[in-house]
Fold each of these.
Amino acid sequence: MTVTFRPLLTSLGLSAALLSSASVQALEVDKAIEYRQSALRVMAFQTGPLGDMVQGDIDYDAEDFALRANNLASLAHLPWEAFIEGSLQNDDHGIATEAMAVIADNRDDFISRQETLVDETDTLAQMANDGAEFDELRRQMGTVVDTCRGCHDNYRDN
Amino acid sequence: MTVTFRPLLTSLGLSAALLSSASVQALEVDKAIEYRQSALRVMAFQTGPLGDMVQGDIDYDAEDFALRANNLASLAHLPWEAFIEGSLQNDDHGIATEAMAVIADNRDDFISRQETLVDETDTLAQMANDGAEFDELRRQMGTVVDTCRGCHDNYRDN
């Protein structure tokens, strides 16, 4: 109810700061979870054809590979700003999330893994842009997938 | 049920082409709608702070403005590949979508508007990277928002 009333209260000249921090927190967590799940879904969609190509499930197409690799690289830094305090599993928000509570105790490692993903996807995109051989791209794609998996194994509950 | 069985059938050496085209189509439309809605949600999230800054709802921060503008520019070309045949309103998929059926009759205009969005968000990002004045950025942000709105007015049912 507090969330529903916020626009009305704001229009009456009451700033967010005057509302209880709990209500502001609830609204932000809601949006943050929806956003990061969307961003990760978009990354997965763009990763799909790359995985299919390196596994031989679809024909390798250098142009499409480069396009997807560049998309993935530009997406790789997006989701992380939304893993805000109070938005993990076991936090009091009532929203389904696979983001494990243990992230809160391992922020440095979580950030380090994000930076690795950004670096490895950048490398993949640069290699594709530079016309690298398929075997090299396949090897680098393996590194990218391992990076995804490493974080999922530690911090994603599914 | 067909969708559930597909991985099994595929692992048995039956290619997707051997399955009914209806089942493949259903799977693709499902994924396409989920993907494009996610991509547009991510764009909206990144646009939020830009809009808040040009409207004076939050303080202008040149660094954050440039970051968001670059994010938006790299996202602007993503959603459109997923407006595939059979995925619009009134098509037989049973999924909630705001993508109006009239898009099918106006593909050239729809594509032209996508290209305009890509161009205008690229311009905004470039201006921010080049250190443009806030008034110039605000004006270009108005053009970007008008581009969003133009497409929504014609092709989004909400």
Amino acid sequence: MATLSDIGVAAAINILSAFAFFLAFAILRIQPVNDRVYFPKWYTKGLRCSPLANGAFASKFLNLDFRSYARFLNWMPAALRMPEPELIDHAGLDSAVYLRIYLLGLKIFVPIALLAFTIMVPVNWTNNNLEHSGLTFSDIDKLSISNIPNGSDRYWTHLVMAYAFTFWTCYVLKREYEIVAAMRLHFLASEQRRPDQFTVLVRNIPPDPDESVSELVEHFFLVNHPDHYLSHQVVYNANKLSGLVKEKKKIKNWLDYYQNKYERNPSKRPFLKTGFLGLWGDSVDAVDFYTAKIERLSRDISTETEKITNNPKSIMPAAFVSFKTRWGAAVCAQTQQCRNPTTWLTECAPEPRDLYWENLAIPFVFLTIRRLIVAVAFFFLTFFFMIPIAIVQSLANIESIEKTLPFLKPIIEVKFIKSFIQGFLPGIALKIFLIFLPTILMIMSKFEGFISLSSLERRSASRYYFFQFINVFLGSIITGTAFQQLNHFIHQSTNEIPKTIGASIPMKATFFITYIMVDGWAGVAAEILRLKPLIIYHLKNFFLVKTEKDREEAMDPGTLGFNTGEPQIQLYFLLGLVYAVVTPILLPFIIVFFGLSYVVFRHQIINVYNQEYESAAAFWPDVHLRIIVALIVSQLLLMGLLSTKEAASSTPLLITLPVLTIWFHRFCKERYEPAFVRYPLQEAMMKDTLERAREPNLNLKGFFQNAYMHPVFKSVDEDDVDVAMEEWEVEPSLVATKRTSKRSTPFSSKHGGSTLSLPEANNESSKPENA
Amino acid sequence: MATLSDIGVAAAINILSAFAFFLAFAILRIQPVNDRVYFPKWYTKGLRCSPLANGAFASKFLNLDFRSYARFLNWMPAALRMPEPELIDHAGLDSAVYLRIYLLGLKIFVPIALLAFTIMVPVNWTNNNLEHSGLTFSDIDKLSISNIPNGSDRYWTHLVMAYAFTFWTCYVLKREYEIVAAMRLHFLASEQRRPDQFTVLVRNIPPDPDESVSELVEHFFLVNHPDHYLSHQVVYNANKLSGLVKEKKKIKNWLDYYQNKYERNPSKRPFLKTGFLGLWGDSVDAVDFYTAKIERLSRDISTETEKITNNPKSIMPAAFVSFKTRWGAAVCAQTQQCRNPTTWLTECAPEPRDLYWENLAIPFVFLTIRRLIVAVAFFFLTFFFMIPIAIVQSLANIESIEKTLPFLKPIIEVKFIKSFIQGFLPGIALKIFLIFLPTILMIMSKFEGFISLSSLERRSASRYYFFQFINVFLGSIITGTAFQQLNHFIHQSTNEIPKTIGASIPMKATFFITYIMVDGWAGVAAEILRLKPLIIYHLKNFFLVKTEKDREEAMDPGTLGFNTGEPQIQLYFLLGLVYAVVTPILLPFIIVFFGLSYVVFRHQIINVYNQEYESAAAFWPDVHLRIIVALIVSQLLLMGLLSTKEAASSTPLLITLPVLTIWFHRFCKERYEPAFVRYPLQEAMMKDTLERAREPNLNLKGFFQNAYMHPVFKSVDEDDVDVAMEEWEVEPSLVATKRTSKRSTPFSSKHGGSTLSLPEANNESSKPENA
């Protein structure tokens, strides 16, 4: 039970550390040498040139204009200045809608907080239950529901508030769903011609003894979609080839490193040892060694390429089928093709750069088996992850280290180091696990067989949310591992569960306030510093970069990271909704989180992140669903809490809330979700008609030529992107791009791709603010 | 705890009563006067003429050929003789697949019973737990799991058996799903051209200020399906008109009654009183009175018809849109048309006779609200239905009757009557409720807004199953009302629930054996007697029938009644699966039920029932799902039972069973369900191509002219069917029908309809066995 002043101190510390991060960012940001770390987005869009090119030598690396240091927070208004339509042009719809999640948080919680502080806090404050209870209590508890005596009529206020908050949340959610759906449809409608609009991915093509996959696909679609079928592209199993190409790239980096070393110090040729980790073995000339290795790999790659193109076994039973019209593609994607619903599976093709090629060939039966395996594995991961960690912890103590590595003994026995290790070791296994958790979840999703990066990230996000819900939210409220909770709940009566959790909720308010400040305030402020990319960029810059192109590759703009970012936001929605009625003092902290994150991430999206794909906000149904889940959880917990408070007469009124919320969710799902899943024929027809009128003699076949070629084939002949570019430049554009883009957004991602239309881009306001 | 001999006595009684029913049926059936009650199917198919037409007078009504009495059970082999393909031609796929549910029961339970009796019964029998327990027990209990001492290793047998039974059930289910899906697709593929193959039902057409619904539909589909759209038919709101037509039909019956009366006794014109129930009021000539009334109604009907056709407000925002090809219709039904997913909702049009016209105009928002209301209402119906019944029961006691109707007092006070009423009254309210339950559930489904009779019946069936599961199955095991159970379960820990139920399962075995014999043996045997239709037919025949056509209308062949029959079968699946491991002695009783029902219903389907619609076995996914549910329930209850038996080490092994079963269900759902929901494009294209090759100059437009006219318009001009017939006869047939059908099956149902192809009908074997 922390007092208000305790929380004040914690707040001060976190605010100070946040400010420290901002200050560091402000200083690092305006150094020209860091320009590519803090403004990579503008480089990839070709709107900013290297500041190293001109000016005095010192000013190439340090900013000597001291006036610019004074305005160290001016990035904040600048980040807010870009209007939303331009933001969509600049960074894509995914990013723009992702920012709306933070706005949604503000829209939901600001009115709720106002209402709670004008009505509920006075009701709570004017009691003296705690004073009479003889328990120790703090001012914060006086503001919470704990201050109301059992069986009091004042609980009606909380009941009414619960209704008001639910209705307000649902209203905002519905409006937001409506807006996002409209934005998505508008975005899709105003897009330029892209191959994925005309293309359908066909999977599980049944084997045929007489025909090759390619012939089979052609015949099937010529028969069943005679008026619309145009062409197709088979999918090759190029997993081995991509391994080789990746290997080659790595070796090339080493070669560059040694060549740079040699150039800087031409007197001494660099040598290396060929054995394990370069620690022993024969000493050879490094440049020659790697040059030879690259030559060997290039030979292997060309052999493998030939093998793939000539061997029919390397063709997977999947194909990209292109149609003459968007209408034809929309029809094919939404219908069932064959009697056997597990063959000839069609779906809208993802963007080429969104594809996860490795999973294209998994047959149907394996998909269902894999799903079962992953479901079971995830269950064990969530509820039993503490077991292996506890084992590691028990092994990784000082005694066993001393036993296995006796030569470390004298160092360990130093008192300071010993206590450090003893305090540090038990936590490290857990910490490492938590750092790798998103990766583990991503591997699970990949194993499960999703075929686009966007769906992989969405799936990982829902798993991560569930894990956090169980292990962070419930785990903090009911201390104990998830398995202990599970065991506890199984042995408890059904209506006891919300009671148990509900009753301990008010007591955990201060814990969560601290959590919000550390994770939500300081954590978000740290995000803007980009410490890891900063270090890596400078390392690469020093060791590997030779040409301007290398420098461009050394940039790591990163992405939003939907699979980790969104579940984090959702945790705040959950906390806000759960504590809105119970301990409203938590709400301002959450509002600060949402506001701060909005500004920070808007800045990052404008200046830094470069999305790998564009799913046109396909994740919104997930976001909506999880807020609904949080709402229902908050209602159930309030019900449990009130029933321990002997306000049982409120139970029937509280039960109707989740029923209504579930119904609301179903309504929204039916009303808005189809916009995120299917492409309406009316829209497709409209775009087709418009296009036919504008360009009657369009040659679409050429347009599709290599759109869905495996990226590895493009990159085989080295420096792939430029080759792909040439094909793309031929493409006529509906809306002329005003920006003279050197490398427009979509190309910059790994797998080559497609272009977005950038209507009426306002060059003035979209320039980065650079003093 | 009944002994074996108790059960033997009960079995004898029920077998005897079943035989009595069969005997009565055998005698009544061969009386010519009952021919239309026991063979209506053949009359509606036009394959049997009235036996009244020829022969001696006495033999018109009574069968005097005494040899035929000797072979009184010969209908059984006859019922089994018709091969399945012919059965499908004769009675439709729905009926044929419905019979397969009984066969499925046999396929599942016969091997399970064999295995149980060879392995599990000896294991149970060779213990002496009960003898040492000091409890009273019977031989039946010695055969059950109760005879095994707690913590015994013998429970491994039951565990292995549970696995074996689950795998066997799943294997049979999967095979059956596969077969039924193939049958459905074959049936659809071999069907003749029917309007519903080319037609899509469009609902929620948005209002347009400038265009009428008809123009709007035409423009929308001309734009969005330009190559495929052919014509459309708007839907009129003719609910009032159908009321008038129904009223007229009723009045006409009365007129017929009085005319008959007058003809039989021409000396005295029949009079009637116009007041309440004909008890008082002015006395008028009945024939004149009703003739005048009919005239007035006919005038009203023609005014109303005119009003509907001229008033644009009576056009509902729904339409039937017909396409040039099946491919076009399949595409339109499976795709989303408009940005707003709640307008222009398309789905495959049901057969005209399957349509439930009243629900065609419900807008989307109301649909979701109605669904919520029905869900809540059904919840209360299931768990609180005892409350109003208890109130009625408390009111309907002898004292209150004597108070309200004092003149009955002397009669009631007679001792015999008094005790009869006292024993009878409390039960009657419950009995009446249970009789009306299917109707109540059907009204709920209608309120919910389903638009076809088949979906109404499917929905009612699932509700009825749920009600039975809660109130019959759980209600019998844990005595007490559903609400008490619910309350009990809420206050109980989650893993206690299967324990509580599981532990009382073995004790209820004898109760369920009796239940099966009464409901499943005698009840099924009573079904074949058709007592209610028999009485009604003879009443109508005596009072109303004038012409042969009237006699045809007096026949009430009835239908299978999916909404009541299927849940009953499912209860037996549930009992069988739950008791297979616990008390295998129950299995033979269930096998007898399945065998007997199969024969009885096969006979009824061949000779009696006339389906109102043909959904091509669209109900199979529901059947499959419910058996899976029964399987999972049985696994959970076994887990609960074994954990009370201190065989807790088996729990982890038992938990994997439901996980695997759920996974199996999901696999089947994805693999087979689409065949029941969507029409594959390949199939559509194949039929289209075939048809185009055979009849290049087909005029489809005329074919659709009145296919989806509201049935009431057809019947307005009296004797609707013949008019509809004429239109139909024009239709060219792919496979010539060998039977010269006077009124082929589909026409005979209420709403007019379509024809089925009857390839290679074998006239020999399909004739009814008539000695």
Amino acid sequence: MMMLGRGPDARDNQTRQIRDAVSNVEKHFGELCQIFAAYVRKTARLRDKADLLVNEIYAYAATETPNLRVGLKNFADEFAKLQDYRQAEVERLEAKVVEPLKSYGTIVKLKRDDLKATLTAKNREAKQLSQLEKTRQRNPSDRHIIAESELQRASMDATRTSRQLEETIDNFEKQKIKDIKDIFSEFVTIEMLFHGKALEIYTAAYQSIQNIDENEDLEVFRSSLHPPDYQSRLDIVRANSKSPLQRNSSLKFSSGMVQN
Amino acid sequence: MMMLGRGPDARDNQTRQIRDAVSNVEKHFGELCQIFAAYVRKTARLRDKADLLVNEIYAYAATETPNLRVGLKNFADEFAKLQDYRQAEVERLEAKVVEPLKSYGTIVKLKRDDLKATLTAKNREAKQLSQLEKTRQRNPSDRHIIAESELQRASMDATRTSRQLEETIDNFEKQKIKDIKDIFSEFVTIEMLFHGKALEIYTAAYQSIQNIDENEDLEVFRSSLHPPDYQSRLDIVRANSKSPLQRNSSLKFSSGMVQN
């Protein structure tokens, strides 16, 4: 009596609950997939800008004095290496996070079809079971025997399909939690690998910058402005401008006036 | 003679060399500024996507079984914390790398005006000096004395301005190397601070994911599909469907047929 009265409601409720659970996973895994993909794309854009930075530092370094040139070149070498690791990060995230989430869409669809078939069978059998119960109650006559055997078969089928549905949804849930744990663990591992490399590389890059000897470069810059032959010419000019004063002592007075 | 013949060329060459050096710094610091700014913007875009990811993980976690919910929520908490550090990274890079490079444009302009004035004075004085030399050589008469005193003053002025120019360009070079070292060191320090925090935070985030107990969640999911009153109704139905078989032994044959 209770099953006839409230059974179908409970079944509908359970059916709805399972369908909602699967749709919910489908929806959220889809959104996670899109946002992770966007995160990976932005990481790739960041790598692009870092590559431009590497090229510009090389270009600038080439125009500079030796110490600055070497320091900046070494920095750019290290920074370029980091971008290779960022590229590896992008490819790994694509393969281990975005792709599994994307293919999960297909998996969820297949599992939903699976579930739908099982749910349909379960509902059909449950209806048949309650139909037979009604027949049995209305006809306690000779048709009773056939009804009883059909009732028994329907009952066993319903039980078997129920167990099957339970297994299907159980596997779905188990797989889902496992996949989430796997995907998020992969994400963290890939990111940590990159951040660890970044620390290592920046430590070397920092030394490249700190090692730039400004005084040596300053000397180089100065001597580039005063080539040796120019310097000697300057000495000749100075000697020339002094010599008249030394040669003619009568100039001492007038030169003294100018100096005061 | 050498100065009259090749001096102006050497001076022009030096002037061009200094101007080129300053223009080169202006050009490359400008480009570095733009690319660093783009790098910072892309980092901010990455943070935006990560923020979306945080929100989506919270939204999904809210729909899930307790262990998954807590695990994902803890992960999102950690990941959100990392985005706060990324925001700090963005602000620090803006303040310590992009701004100094941007304001360097103004500094370079001022220094270039400075250099231009000094170079102009130096060139004017050098011309005056060579003019006086010519006058001295052509007029060994009474105007010679005035010419000699003017020559001496012009020579001293040229020497003083030369020294001034040397100091100006020296300071410019010194400041430039110091600023490059400072800006790149700040860049590396800010990035390392972020990567260090990332490693720390991801270590905690990894634990949040690993700690998710799938078996406990599976039990919760199962019992949510079979509420206690439904379970008891199911038992009643099973008892009802079994009772006719137990009551009527004549059904054994037909039920056996169904089972084979």
Amino acid sequence: MLLNLDCHSSTPLYRQIHDQISVLIDGGQLLPDQQLPPTRTLAQRLGVNRSTVVRAYSELAAAGYVASLSGSSVRVRQRLPFANRTAAAGWLQAGSPPSVAADSGGALPFDLATLAPDPRLAPVAEWRRALAQVLARRGAELLGYGEPQGDLRLRQWLADYLRRHRIDIDAEQLLLTNGAQQALDLILRWRIRPGDRVVVESPTYAQLLPLLAAVGADVVAVPMTVEGMDLARLSTVLAERKPVLVCTMPSFHNPTGITTSQSHRERLLALCDAAQVMVVEDGFVEEMKYAGPAVPPLKALDQHQSVVYVGTLSKVMGPGLRIGYVAAHPAVIHALTELSQQTSLGGAPLLQAAAWQFCRNGWFAAYLQRLHRHYRRRLQTLLRLLDAAALPGVCYQRPSGGYLLWLTLPNSKKSEDELVDALASAGVAVRGGRRFYPEPPATVALRLSIARLDEGQITTAAAILVSVLRQSLALSGELTYEHP
Amino acid sequence: MLLNLDCHSSTPLYRQIHDQISVLIDGGQLLPDQQLPPTRTLAQRLGVNRSTVVRAYSELAAAGYVASLSGSSVRVRQRLPFANRTAAAGWLQAGSPPSVAADSGGALPFDLATLAPDPRLAPVAEWRRALAQVLARRGAELLGYGEPQGDLRLRQWLADYLRRHRIDIDAEQLLLTNGAQQALDLILRWRIRPGDRVVVESPTYAQLLPLLAAVGADVVAVPMTVEGMDLARLSTVLAERKPVLVCTMPSFHNPTGITTSQSHRERLLALCDAAQVMVVEDGFVEEMKYAGPAVPPLKALDQHQSVVYVGTLSKVMGPGLRIGYVAAHPAVIHALTELSQQTSLGGAPLLQAAAWQFCRNGWFAAYLQRLHRHYRRRLQTLLRLLDAAALPGVCYQRPSGGYLLWLTLPNSKKSEDELVDALASAGVAVRGGRRFYPEPPATVALRLSIARLDEGQITTAAAILVSVLRQSLALSGELTYEHP
């Protein structure tokens, strides 16, 4: 067996040995059941450290090239030629694949589109320490399967946290999920059968709509007013359409940024309780409150346990950590836990435990404070510049928290796509409003997020935004004039 | 505002301040919009470090007790009374919750039931280092949302790894999932409509059955023979029942431990290709091969891309890490990626990146070697003791890998439950075979797993197993005699 090692190559020596032997096996120069030289012999022959050969052999064994009988004798294994790629199977040829929803926001210099928090503020050092702490204490346990409902310590911390937000709950009434998205998916899969009616706000969280389609829900849209969901319309819908579920996002609504009043929440809940309809409250970024009195969540007013509350820690702590949760009646948590076990065997206990450590160390509260300071200033900057521009025909409300500002352009003669493209070619990414509507919207709208840009960048982005919108609206003005 | 701190308490000082102030707010001694003393003032008054008060205030703010206007002035917020828990909502009162499948294996002294690998072998130190390495290099990125298909480096490593197993694939044809379980769920949700026929082996992976039920599949059971799925029966089923999907686990089949031959795989694939039926190959613990020639996966023989391969890294690396994957035609990966985004926004990039680092450092190969040594010995020990006992009426095959040994007791007059209970009361946990059958089984069977017990424990457990089985079978012998 002839091997040539290049000590100056960037490829590690063990890798060179591995690759050259695998080539000899692939090429048939080494035959099945043929024995490889013992590691010590080969190491001496090649003038390398024995551990280098051991590693090369172990990689070959893991790759199925050789059968390693606990290190002693190592033999080449029987193998087959590759399957060469030919025409796809008949069941595949029908139809081309659907495209994965592209999120191009990050590609442009000024990203007012993306909702995920600013990586420049990510608490990386804290997470590194939290992970090291829990791995040191509970490592072996945390690499194994977790508790069906999720890490008990984290659920206890969350229950404590929610109780301080007036949600009367204990760890048994919480289920940890792979982000709020999986929480919504589990709730709909458990509760909705094809044809069941589900009430959603219009506009609403765009990612809710494909989940509803997947379970075959019959979606009933109730328009958003400046106070939140149109309650007169809701009560008619409850009476006439007999929905089984109402989905709402009362705080920092995505996309409109609206936060409903306490009385609005009480009336909404009273209507749903009277109709005995389940309510899914998407807590979203409830924690991102910058000013004004704290309006308690619907779940805090929930006298009859009709509210299923969906929350998330990862949205602010780090969305990639995928730590959402459901707070609900034990019967609901029971059913959702079983479904979560069936469909994904639950979340990663290591991340859940590290999140607990992160919170336990007080880093969650401290990090929230930091985010609040930054995002409050960013939002104020954007609002100040838009106020100063006083664009005719552009409407928006002042959110009391969250990341979002929602612009509606009732008289725009330019289409949403034209506006989004004009802004994109000027370097500013925004979200067109259409995707947030369960049915075609009456008016053109744009969603702006302040999550990704600092105040300086927002200042520049806002200037571009203002000039592009002014042109478009001036133009539409002319058009109105030309065609009365 | 009167606070009393106990310096000798185990409760941290910041926490004592937080708790006492929140009590004052809850009790109404501190009223909405009332201002709290500045941090410096309170710190001096209490004789504590100012940072202690800052932390207490920031926790109060995060909990919604106070509104913190960037640290300067801190005010008590408006709040509501708790919702007291009364009767559950009408939509809840119908029916009691389903129970979450209990897995009591761990509770007994000798656990031959649990499949998850032995925590005593978990590569905790390696994982701590891998996590630290990737957090240091890509921390901020890894706390954010990941790529829709999962970490590119890990997919490239996997593609390389699979190519060495003769699966001709690149990173674009891979989707990372939250464990193999989510992979199966995504495939079924994408491919199966209510009423579609799906062929499964009988017995099969128990956790596959609820997934099939959830999508409304019409399950067609094809019995397992000692060579694997009964191909004569399969070809009849393909012709007469027109299934859209065939699920198979050709290596170290769960629960039977059977590994099919290359010719069996070729014939199974030829049948499915001729019928133009998609095949889901559950790779399960393919890596856990102890002896004999390496039989290539079905996917390696897949001339027409009709095989969707489901694999997992976490089953051996640490099941709690939830890192599974799908290898399939780009159109399939495309559709599954979209569904994964819709339903959970994908997996945790931090764990995927750390898994890549773990593999890249050569630790996966080394860890596999270690597991092989241990599990091979455990399996050999169990087989040696059962062989020596030569129990009449107990059949089993010698697996060439994996964790499982499948005992069938064709003539047992004792029921499965009686046997499982008898063993449990003697301290040995095993899995009854019934749960692995899509339809009531013809014979009593028990599944033994060697994953959790070392050789010493297996020796004791096997002794108990043998004596309990011998009693039962002797008894059933009498019964046969009494009732000819």
